[in-house]
Design brief:
Elements: E1 9-13, H1 18-30, E2 34-39, E3 54-58, H2 65-74, E4 77-80, H3 87-92, H4 94-115, E5 118-122, H5 153-173, E6 177-182, E7 185-186, H6 193-197, H7 203-213, E8 216-220, E9 226-228, E10 230-231, H8 232-244, E11 253-257, E12 263-265, H9 266-277, H10 281-289, E13 291-295, H11 297-301, H12 316-322, H13 330-342
Helix pairs in contact: 1-8, 2-4, 4-5, 7-9, 9-13
Length: about 350
């Protein structure tokens, strides 16, 4: 359906990334909205070009200010998804992490303020840092990060400052916003094997690659830290509800988007990955030989790494406001992701 039919116009910056590709797919499949996509590359979203409601512009968020300003002015909702979201980069390239996740996204938010456009901004579960709360609440839990010498926290601090600035723009300038905090979203296209080859992929992709190409999975700190894993399809359902914003119930709100029922240790994840890989003929031999190896954080990430023991989101707020609940269980998430790589 062409944009002239009146469908919502959604501008997705960083559309070629994990969240961007899945959200584009969901919007085009489930709504009559238009997606205007922007990124440095298009390989993961190129297949959508045949849909007349989709357009792609290749560009650089650091330099293409005039195009970005014009695109924001034409949009109904803006999702600035361009960012660094991999712990390996927080440590290896902390300045780049700050420049993209804070400076460039602040520029986009200010464009939204000037054009009076709604912004749906990706915060992160990492803003909670090492909070001592057993269940993390959007509007109550303290945000606790480690020392300055641990560069892992530059991502958390960059996102937290963006959260605070967006809320302030809402209070002082009437900005319409929603902040969403992803808790370990998992699924196809999370990372690729080129990332894993350099040991910059996130957990599940890195594990699948390491079983196939290294014969062992490295468990940082013994894999005792716990996370709450969410299927990306459940995640995009939540984003669609946020974008629909029925009754304005998502406006000027912060929502955790995760699945507390899927809380598991990284060791649990590794053991489940290996076991499920044995179910696939292409992976069976490698998975049967794979071993789990404990490594220290210093050995794996070098200096600057620090971690939180657990992250369990409360999702009561988004459930009450938007009627969203996660559906896909932990083992099924792993099986679906392994199946994607088995193709």
């Amino acid at each position: 359906m062409d944009a002239s039919t009146g469908g919502k116009k959604v501008l997705i910056l960083g559309a070629n990334g994990f969240i961007g590709t899945h959200l584009t797919e969901k919007i085009l499949a489930d709504t009559d909205w238009r997606v205007d996509a922007f990124d440095r590359a298009e390989e993961s979203v190129a297949g959508y070009r045949r849909d007349t409601r989709y357009s792609f512009t290749k560009g650089d968020i650091f330099t293409d200010d005039e195009w970005l300003k014009d695109a924001v002015a034409k949009a109904d909702a803006v999702l600035p998804l361009a960012g660094i979201a991999k712990p390996a980069y927080y440590i290896r390239k902390p300045l780049w992490t700050f420049e993209l996740d804070f400076e460039q996204n602040l520029k986009i938010v200010r464009m939204c303020v000037d054009a009076k456009k709604r912004v749906v901004f990706p915060s992160t579960s990492e803003v909670y840092g090492m909070s001592g709360d057993d269940e993390l609440l959007e509007d109550e839990s303290p945000l606790v990060v480690g020392p300055v010498t641990k560069s892992r926290w530059i991502y958390s601090c960059s996102k937290q400052m963006m959260d605070r600035i967006i809320v302030a723009y809402g209070e002082e300038h009437g900005l319409d916003y929603t902040l969403f905090r992803p808790f370990n979203w998992v699924g196809p296209r999370l990372d690729n094997f080129e990332d894993a080859k350099e040991r910059t992929a996130r957990s599940i992709t890195q594990m699948i690659y390491d079983v196939l190409h290294r014969g062992e999975i490295s468990l940082v700190g013994g894999g005792e830290n716990r996370r709450s894993f969410l299927w990306v399809g459940d995640a995009t359902d939540a984003l669609l509800a946020i974008l629909r914003n029925e009754g304005g119930r998502a406006s000027r709100q912060i929502f955790n988007v995760g699945n507390p029922a899927n809380n598991a240790s990284i060791r649990d994840l590794a053991e489940t990955v290996v076991r499920i890989m044995r179910e696939f003929p292409a992976f069976e031999a490698a998975a049967r030989e794979a071993v789990l190896k404990d490594v220290t954080p210093e050995a794996y990430y070098k200096e600057g790494y620090q971690d939180m023991r657990n992250r369990v989101p409360s999702v009561e707020k988004i459930k009450k406001a938007l009627g969203w609940t996660p559906k896909v269980g932990f083992e099924e998430i792993v099986r679906r992701t392994v199946a994607y790589f088995a193709k």
